[in-house]
Amino acid sequence: MPHIYVTGHKNPDTDSIASAIAYAEYKNLVDPDNFYVPARLGDVNSQTAWALKKSGAESPALLRHIMLRVKDVMKEELITAHRDDPLRNVGLAMAKRNIGQIPIVDDDGALVGIVTERDLARMYVRESREPSNFESTPVAVGAMLEVLEGELLAGNDRASSGRLWVIARDVGSMGQHIRSGDLVVVGDRPDAQRRAVELGAEVLVVSNGVRPDDEVLRMAEERGATVVLSPLDSYVTSRMIQLSVPCWEIMSENPLTVDPDDLLPDITGAVMDVHYRAAIAVDRDNVPIGLVSRTDLVNPEPRRVLLVDHAETGQSVKGVERARVVEILDHHHIGDIETTSPIPATFDPVGSTATLIVERFKASGLRPDESTAMMLLAAVLSDTVVLNSPTTTERDHEVVKYLEEMLDLDAREFGMEMFEASSDVSELSAEEIVNRDAKEYGTSSGEKMSVSQVETVGTSILERKEELLEALEDMRAHNSYVFAALMVTDIIEGGTELLCAGDCAPVEKAFDARATEGVIDLPGVMSRKKQVAPKLLAVL
């Protein structure tokens, strides 16, 4: 079933993680033709970790990129052959499946080589005017019987290493060529059959399905020769015997292998360089699990992603520009994500993306799982700062009331417990504080800025102002931002101290306030989305 990854933004907050979990759950209920998988783009912060533990919800898997990998395009219905399988069986399998190569494995299933159409062709091209010789690759009688669909009339299964003869001449001249240990194909000619046995033929193959007389069989038994009955004519029988050799005799060793997680751009050149234009995907034990060919690399179907809580390329998963974005559900401004075809996209100015998801559950007559519902409640309360942020709408209040009743708890107590549990950042480094909830914003002119936010109970974190400003400057310089800012938001007092590194003139202009030692006092400001980011983007 096709996978669609549901993911929030980088440096995920509680709304981003909860929305990915909940919207994937919702979409799997209303769209059973696809399989939606929640994903995260970074480590969860302490608040989200608290919510996950409190709710019992499972943290989404980390998605490092959305670029195509080998396992996204490889053919998993892989046909393999054992190194000792007759070559004819391999050729028939290739013809039946209309494929140009078959991986060859050993007794443990590990890859040892590959047989291609080119290998088969070269086997015939190499043949000279001399009789076929099995000295270097003995052919087993059992393999001959399998390929000929023949019958063993005398003797035992054995491996023959002699030359192969097809008798179409006078019996008197046979002794000039046939030596002891050779293989002889002869039709309904008792004299030629007897002569072949007398000359020491190791294997006598009687063609056209005509059984030799008892005298020939008795002679064969006495001299230790093996007699095989073939239903085919002499020419076809000889060709089939040549195809009874084990496939390792002509296979190409050291075939091109790839890891299932390799990126397609990283393996394309290598695939194009080998004559069979394919690579074998193997697991850690070198067991083949898939095949990727040149045709698989031509206009492959991109991986699909559904974006929640963001619409900015800079905030999204690596490689999003190469993916197929199938939907956007967000409560921020419209970003710079581009799509090649129309998609459902919602940009609704409520307090959190979680609010929009709860409304969709209700509209469809569905209820989220209890753990999911608790994550959604944590998300709404987080983004609205327990319904105190200026971004809070009546719809957020209604959603909180709905979840409060569903979960049978007091939402305000739950929210304050969450903020108090996650407001202690004393164990975090300054770098971790400024990076854990950083959001990058860009302008049409190419300028970029970053705004991080940490929500606290009190402002004791400002005692670490100097190291926080140093961490902000490091972030700014590394990413070439015009400036990098950190909102230290006191949820009790309802205000923000804004730390700024870089060119802070636009920040001062946006808020008509002067920075004092890198800090701007913003009383009443609590929302990055509504009160900070729009003003900063406007002045840039």
Would you write up a description of this structure?
The protein is an alpha/beta fold. The chain has 4 domains: 3-68 and 302-422, inorganic pyrophosphatase (n-terminal core); 72-125 and 249-297, CBS-domain; 138-244, HprK N-terminal domain-like (Udp-n-acetylmuramoylalanyl-d-glutamate--2,6- Diaminopimelate Ligase, Chain: A, domain 1, 3-Layer(aba) Sandwich), CATH 3.40.1390; 430-539, DHHA2 domain (Diaminopimelate Epimerase, Chain A, domain 1). Helix content is 35%, strand content 21%. It has 18 helices and 25 strands. Strands 3-2-1-18-19-20 form a 6-stranded parallel beta sheet. The protein has a 5-stranded mixed beta sheet with strand order 8-13-12-11-10, with helices on both faces. It has a 5-stranded mixed beta sheet with strand order 21-22-23-24-25. Helix 11 packs across helix 12 (370-383) and helix 17 (505-511) crosses helix 18 (528-539).
Descriptive key words:
single chain, 540 residues, alpha/beta, inorganic pyrophosphatase (n-terminal core), CBS-domain, Udp-n-acetylmuramoylalanyl-d-glutamate--2,6- Diaminopimelate Ligase, Chain: A, domain 1, 4 domains, five-stranded mixed β-sheet
Concise synopsis of the structure shown:
By secondary structure, this protein is of the alpha/beta class. It contains 18 helices and 25 strands.
Find the structural class using helix and strand composition: alpha/beta
Strand content is 15-25%
Structurally, the number of domains stands at: 4
Number of helices: 18
List the helices and strands and how they pair.
Layout: E1 3-7, H1 14-30, E2 35-40, H2 46-55, E3 61-62, H3 70-73, E4 81-82, H4 87-97, E5 101-105, E6 111-116, H5 117-126, E7 139-140, H6 141-148, E8 151-154, E9 159-160, E10 164-166, E11 183-186, H7 190-198, E12 203-206, H8 214-223, E13 226-229, H9 234-242, E14 252-253, E15 257-258, H10 264-273, E16 278-282, E17 288-293, E18 304-308, E19 324-330, E20 345-347, H11 353-363, H12 370-383, H13 394-407, H14 411-422, H15 430-435, E21 439-442, E22 448-456, H16 465-479, E23 483-490, E24 495-502, H17 505-511, E25 519-523, H18 528-539
Parallel strand pairs: 1-2, 1-18, 2-3, 4-5, 10-11, 11-12, 12-13, 15-16, 18-19, 19-20, 22-23
Antiparallel strand pairs: 5-6, 6-14, 7-9, 8-13, 16-17, 21-22, 23-24, 24-25
Helix pairs in contact: 1-11, 1-12, 2-12, 2-14, 7-8, 11-12, 12-13, 12-14, 17-18
